[in-house]
Every structure is written in C-alpha cells, then in structure tokens.
Amino acid sequence: MADISSITYDMLKTAVEHIFNKLKEGKKLSTEDLFLLYLGTIADDLREIRTETAKLNARIDETNKRIDDLARSLSARIDETNKRIDAVQATLLEIQKLLIELVKSRQ
Q1: Cα distance between residue 83 and residue 81, in whole Å
Q2: Is residue 95 assigned to a domain?
C-alpha cells in the first residue's frame, strides 16, 4: 500500500494538471484553483527538500562511518604504543634492579 503523502501528491499533481488545462483553454481560475496551484509548488519544494535531506543524511552516515573507522584505527595504534611503552618501562626497571645489585655487590 502506498503511503498517504505519495497518494496526496499524486492527487495534487492531477488537480494541478487539470488547472493547467483550464489555463490553456483560457478559462478563469477560481480561488480554489489558485490555492491548489500554490499547494502544488509547495509540495514540489517539499519533495525536493526531502530528497536533499535524505542525500545529506546518507552523506552524514558515510562520514560518521569513516570517522568511526579512523577512531578504531587510532585506538589500535595507541594501544600498541602503550604496550611498547610498558615494555620499555619493564626493561628500565630490570636495568635499575641490576644497577642496584651491581652497586651493592661492589660495596
């Protein structure tokens, strides 16, 4: 089943086409005809805005995915760097212990 906005748009489009035919025949337009023409332009603008909004949302989603991927990559690199720092600290502690033992043994 089609959604209500699509059905409404199609009905409005048909009404606007009917009004254009009246214009071609040189008939006078009623207030309702003018109102329907105005609604037709608003509906077209709204449809364009919805399309653009959908495109922008897709671009935002793609950008967010790239940012998330970048964040994961950076996080992994930081974790690896932290492991290396921990290993260096452990090595320095071992060197410090050895130096203390060396100093004690010489005294």
Answers
A1: 5
A2: no
d(C-alpha 15, C-alpha 40), whole Å: 9
78, pLDDT greater than 80: yes
8 A C-beta contact, residue 16 and residue 37: yes
Residue 57 domain-assigned?
Answer: yes
Helix (H) or strand (E) holding 71: helix 31-106
Taking alpha carbons only, the member of 89, 72, 80, 37 closest to residue 29 is 37
Instruction: Give the domain extent around 31.
Output: 4-80
Q: What is the pLDDT of residue 5?
A: 78
Number of structural domains found in the chain:
1
pTM: 0.57
Residue 90 inside a domain? The answer is no
